[in-house]
């Protein structure tokens, strides 16, 4: 069994769960296929990655993270009002719906419809877990050594 510890650039296979303040589980891979990530590749939020540094295969950890350590604080600038004419005529936005929007650079950004009224739609582009303190639980399945820098 590898004795490698998790460092920046380490390929890691793990189970994880994220629970909200009230205990509601938002995400979990326990009982499913584990997740494969390379630390620093952007798959996990930086604060979640920091909680993994130094762990080895077989380790488990449960840590509470403040909103700013996890998915960030909610940003009111990421709540946008859009005229109903921006949506296809056959589409009827509903509160709670997640809609993919095309950005000028060609990428897509998900937004959640939070209000529909008077010919406009209020869309929240914050990460759904932004503003929440979370409990982050992990079980490390395997860790490969980080590639040597050249």
Q: Layout of helices and strands, plus pairs?
A:
Elements: E1 11-19, E2 25-28, E3 35-38, H1 46-50, E4 60-65, E5 79-83, E6 98-102, E7 108-117, E8 120-124, E9 134-143
Antiparallel strand pairs: 1-2, 1-3, 1-9, 4-9, 5-8, 6-7, 7-8
Shape: elongated
- Derived from helix and strand composition plus strand pairing, the structural class reads mainly beta
The stretches of 5 or more residues where confidence is low (pLDDT under 50) are none
The assigned CATH architecture of the largest domain is Roll
Q: Main β-sheet: number of strands, strand sense, barrel status?
A: 5 strands, antiparallel
CATH class of the largest domain: Alpha Beta
Number of distinct helices: 1
| Helix content class | under 10%
Account of the 3D structure:
This protein is mainly beta. It has 2 domains: 11-72 and 129-143, Chitinase A, domain 3; 76-124, Thrombin, subunit H (Beta Barrel), CATH 2.40.10. It has 1 helix and 9 strands, in the order E-E-E-H-E-E-E-E-E-E. Strands 1, 2, 3, 4 and 9 form a 5-stranded antiparallel β-sheet that branches. It has a 4-stranded antiparallel β-sheet with strand order 5-8-7-6, with no helix packed on it. Strand 1 (11-19) and strand 2 (25-28) form a beta hairpin. It is elongated, with a radius of gyration of 19 Å.
How would you summarize what this structure contains?
The protein has 150 residues and is mainly beta. It contains one helix and nine strands.
Question: Which terms summarize this structure?
Answer:
150 residues, mainly beta, Chitinase A, domain 3, Thrombin, subunit H, 2 domains, 5-stranded antiparallel beta sheet, 4-stranded antiparallel beta sheet, 9 strands, 3% helix
């Amino acid at each position: 069994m590898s004795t490698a510890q998790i460092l920046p650039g380490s390929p890691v296979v793990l189970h994880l769960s994220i629970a909200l303040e009230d205990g509601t589980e938002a995400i979990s891979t326990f009982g499913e296929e584990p997740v494969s990530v390379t630390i620093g590749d952007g798959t996990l939020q930086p604060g979640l990655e920091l909680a993994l540094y130094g762990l080895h295969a077989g380790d488990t950890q449960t840590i509470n993270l403040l909103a700013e350590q996890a998915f960030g604080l909610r940003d009111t600038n990421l709540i946008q009002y859009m005229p109903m004419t921006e949506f296809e005529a056959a589409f009827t936005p509903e509160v709670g719906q997640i809609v993919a929007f095309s950005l000028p650079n060609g990428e897509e950004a998900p937004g959640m419809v939070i209000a529909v009224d008077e010919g406009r739609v209020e869309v929240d582009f914050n990460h759904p877990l932004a503003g929440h303190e979370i409990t982050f639980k992990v079980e490390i399945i395997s860790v490969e050594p980080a590639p040597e820098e050249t």
